[in-house]
Amino acid sequence: MKLTVIIVSYNVKHYIEQCLDSLYRALQGIEAEIYVVDNYSKDNSVEYLQQRFTDVKFIACNHNLGFARANNLAINRTESDYILLLNPDTIVGENVIKDSLAFMDSHDEAGGLGVQMLKCNGEKALESRRGLPTPLTAFYKMCGLCAKYPKNKKFGKYYMGYLPWDEQGQIEVISGAYCFLRREAVKQAGALDEDFFMYGEDIDLSYRILKKGYTNWYLPIKILHYKGESTQKSSFRYVHVFYDAMLIFFKKHYGNVASWISVPIKLAIYFKAACALLGMIFGRIHKVLGFSHNDNKDIEYLFLVSEKSKELCCNLAHKKGLNFKIKECDEMSNPKGHLTLMHKINKKVCTYVVYDVNAFRYETILNIFSQCPQQNILMGTFNANSRTIITNQEILK
């Protein structure tokens, strides 16, 4: 077997359905298998997905095992040359996996690679390239020097902002959202550390791969990462798990550094966690007191759909009471998508541009959004087969 793709799922059945749809296109002509490890979802994920993807191998856990342990279950059952850890809230372009395989096959020293991850407005996600969070690198990140001097090789090391976005290059940390690994490198470095429940395990594994003499790479090929649809980032549990992971990594790899370095780093981690928790508390109080603004009335939709999908899409939009415009087109008739329709988009409100994925390739949609990212224009998809509209905020079905 050439490749095993592993997706850990938790209560995101429609996002993973979309992810699998894009993955099927990207795996055409490749000897590959797909594992979905479900971490005890309560939304009927396994039954729902099994009916639609009969050749996917499912592992239905009877507890939430966390990201690392769930991935290891599938890793230990497989023997493929390569392993791809893929988040369920992603969309991969049609050529991403082919390009990843071609690179790894021609670079024997490469232990793994990551790709250019896009936010839902087309902006490049900084997490696409990261340096190891050494004590000093972590300190520069937490005190704001990384944000102030993002292209400085010393202060900006955390996100490696000095690297060009459109060129392949060596990085230190591969994001777990799209983590393409050489099996032999994983055997030598060891699988994911199960002390990490969620977050930090990708940093730890990347570091151990480097220690075994392999290199990690960034390729300028695009995926969408909704970034966290499988987690509640406004929850107190998220703060605890995230910052606990930072402490686990620090103690594991830098536990013996001088106290004048370790103490400030630990204090900074606790300080950041406390600030995040206070922000959540005040946000909830603000909402309870009725000060939160309801932005639903300020959302518009622009649908770019084929003739076959137009009626289905219109019916769904009317059913959900959406404020929308619709344009009948496809990739052949309108290769630049919504960029040719910017005059129809209200700049004063948030607009979801919803693409018919049977009329436009995923790769084309990602390329269009990456050409002209704007804060108020966000990506959405419509799939006539599932009759579902998906955005970063909602599932309309």
Low-confidence spans: 229-235
Q: Proportion of β residues?
A: 15-25%
| Number of separate domains | 3
- Secondary-structure element order, as H and E? EHEHEHEEHEHHEEHHEHHEHEEHEEE
Enumerate how many helices there are, as a single number.
12
| N→C terminal distance | 36 Å
> Main beta sheet: strand number and arrangement?
9 strands, mixed
Per CATH, the class of the largest domain reads: Alpha Beta
Mean pLDDT, to the nearest integer, reads 89
Radius of gyration: 21 Å
Structural class: alpha/beta
Please tally the β strands and state the result: 15
CATH topology of the largest domain: Spore Coat Polysaccharide Biosynthesis Protein SpsA, Chain A
- Any idea what the shape is? globular
Helix content: 25-40%
CATH architecture assignment name of the largest domain: Alpha-Beta Complex
What is the assigned CATH homologous superfamily of the largest domain? Spore Coat Polysaccharide Biosynthesis Protein SpsA, Chain A
